[in-house]
Write a structure and sequence with these properties.
The structure is a homodimer of 433-residue chains. In chain A, 39% of the residues lie in helices and 20% in strands. The first copy, chain A, is of the alpha+beta class and 433 residues long.
Chain lengths: 433, 433
């Protein structure tokens, strides 16, 4: 056998997590878990493979086929590697509709695959935090979801100068368009579609489209003004709108709990016309070089409609990608230099000491919760120290024949270079303070 | 649109992890992580998708094709969902051969997919703990790997009555066969193949096969005796064998560090002829109803041979499946009734109190690290209590208009049914003791 050597590169758009990268990933997922669990959110997970029809039913067959990794198994089932979590969680909620205690406060940090061109911030394999509240359709749930996003970013040390939550409401959006344009629901919808595409077309084409739907120059101008209004001004246009009321309640509560400095009303936040039904929001990175929506979410209806007849569960939530979050943390200098344990001890080895003497020391250290190992191998002391430094050990423990006889060990702090001689039976105590 | 309703079942051989199941999974992966990190092992991870040739090169094309979920991407690459972790970690080690500091002490808890008939303990999607030491080829690394497996099971409360580590050595196996059969390496290999299949054929067929390789009745009998020998007796047959020396050193060390009650020599442990090269072991569940190997591992050579020319990295390690471990923990009653947080507070809601008063209470609780949420919805108090009980909250906080006025809250312990009235500004302190 003299086969060609295989490549050591991971598959395009995927990443290897060596211990250094894994420490970072565990650190930031750990902080997210802790923040959400403290807020009484519960974690769930589902399989990596799902029936392709789950995605086809939500997004259409063409998109599902094109954007997912999909294939047919030997039982002739069309499967896809999950490209998003919502269909899975919808299936799960529908599967236990009668046992679950609503409202659900759920989160998950699944990895997923999307078949797409790779570019900065877009990989084929990524992790995505999903946070949702299911079964509560009032503004309190919307608020709690936004609060959870802010708490997560704050837990990393982010402050209001670094990010902004831009908030709108789809019901308000529809109502205010109708109020300004004086149109019925059907016509308003056409107007909304034009407004949704505002940033993708020229100003001229935008105005022409609105004019052809019967809007006057003055009406177009009033719509323009919405983009510069605060929530009080904007909601005053159609005060009776349920969406306007939701927006006001939400911003009042944000003000009262001291989070208004993180949040602004932004009429430009729409997030696709067909999915969201109430509050919508996007969290923007404020850094000039990175200024864009990092993630977003909102309220949607009928989560379980594809699975259960005549049932309705509403939801509100968001999805945050790991790559985007990491970019944000890097941009703002929020990643610490080291995530290692505070103490990590390498027990160095000498030939004149029985090996089990080292084993018993390391056993005691580990039983006391101190990260430690005996050096494996037969290299000289200097090489052992080198191994300790490279491996981010904070201390080396030195016990040669004379120390063993004297019943002591030496502990060298690799950062300060200080060395302490400690009676062997006081070893755990040395690290306790 | 009146499409047929979709099934709520997960794909065959996969599992949904609702919060109850997820708590269990997080609990036992958490304990494993903690145990291994305290022993200075470092976590890594790789992509779910790998080039199919990675598995074909290791196991042959037919097996790789048959046992993996594989498909061709739009760039005409053959991909597989990882069915095991070794090829990935081999690729990763090979990819940074010159930067990594050996010996590596690595672990990972990846999910993987195997295309196989589903049965008890065998699912298509499962998680597998992989623990390995790379780049140390002496018995100390074998010992450390076995110690790590024992420490993990002990961390769950398992004792020597519940499991046994059965240990053999492939070099010793080869040498003792050669010593008894008086054969050369080539002939010994044929004898080994017969012995490896011993439990899969009738006694008659086994004896016939050995006889046809030239072994006498007496030689067959001496091989039989090996299965009943302890390590001292067995290694005395070929004391000069390097494998025999490794076995003796390993068992001596296990004795000296107080782990010999967990370990026995077992000549029956072989684990496939083509892969392992030194120490091999399997961890058995001692429960009569479950008596079988839960997991195993051993020493293997040339981890990076498929990727790097003229380089060799040895490894020793094991893989432990989540389903097997869970069966073991259930069988021995080692899973606690609850893994929830110690305190979880539901702030109940009354109409005569401004909502932000509740929000500020929950904000304070969370800032003090106390798991808590405000009840979301508009149900009556009794229903709120019901929600708290179902959601495994330990306390409800009650603050109606009169409490608000008096500057107090009531805290009801849902287990003891005790109720305490606490000044609002002493709220965090109430939970601190």
């Amino acid at each position: 056998m003299c086969a060609q050597l295989l490549s050591t590169q991971p598959y395009k758009g995927t990443r290897d997590f060596y211990p250094d990268e894994m420490r970072l990933r565990n650190w930031f997922f750990g902080k997210i878990r802790q923040t959400l669990e403290t807020s009484a959110f519960e974690e769930y997970d589902g399989p990596m493979l799902e029936s392709l029809e789950l995605y086809a039913a939500k997004s259409g067959e063409e998109i599902a086929n094109k954007q997912t990794y999909n294939f047919i198994d030997r039982g002739n089932r069309s499967l896809a590697i999950r490209p998003e979590m919502t269909p899975t969680v919808a299936r799960m909620v529908a599967g236990r509709m009668n046992e679950l205690s609503f409202p659900l406060r759920w989160f998950s940090i699944p990895n997923m695959y999307r078949y797409e061109a790779t570019q900065r911030g877009r990989l084929r394999e990524f992790w995505q935090l999903n946070v949702d509240i299911f079964g509560c359709d009032t503004f309190e749930a919307d608020l709690e979801i936004i609060v959870s996003a802010i708490r997560i970013l704050k837990s990393f040390g982010a402050d209001p100068s670094m990010f902004t939550v831009r908030i709108n409401n789809r019901r308000f959006f529809n109502d205010v368009i109708a109020a300004i344009a004086g149109t019925d629901a059907e016509e308003s919808r056409k107007v909304s579609k034009v407004i949704d595409r505002k940033n993708k077309v020229t100003r001229e084409s935008y105005e022409n489209d609105l004019t052809s739907l019967g809007l006057s120059k003055e009406q177009i101008c009033r719509i323009d003004e919405l983009y510069h209004m605060n929530v009080t001004e904007a909601t005053a246009i159609c005060p009776e709108s349920v969406g306007a009321q939701e927006l006001r309640l939400l911003f009042e509560a944000l003000e009262k709990i001291g989070l208004s400095e993180y949040c602004v009303f932004d009429f430009g936040i729409i997030r696709g016309l067909d999915y969201y039904t109430g509050t919508v929001f996007e969290v923007f990175d404020n850094a000039p070089e990175n200024n864009r929506a990092m993630f977003g979410g909102g309220r949607y209806d009928n989560l379980v409609g594809l699975f259960v007849k005549n049932a309705s569960v509403t939801g509100v939530g968001y999805g945050m990608g790991d790559v985007t979050l990491e970019n944000f943390l890097v941009t703002h200098g929020l990643i610490p230099d080291s995530f290692g344990s505070e103490v990590k001890v390498l027990v160095t080895k000498f030939d004149d000491v029985p090996y089990e003497a080292y084993l018993s020391l390391v056993d005691r250290l580990r039983n006391a919760g101190i990260v430690s190992s005996v050096y494996l191998g037969s290299k000289k002391f200097g090489k052992q120290i080198e191994y300790a430094v490279k491996g981010q050990y904070t201390h080396v423990l030195i016990m040669g024949g004379s120390e063993l006889e004297a019943g002591v060990v030496k502990l060298k702090d690799l950062e300060t270079r200080e060395e302490a001689t400690v009676p062997t039976d006081k070893l755990e105590a040395f690290f306790a303070h």
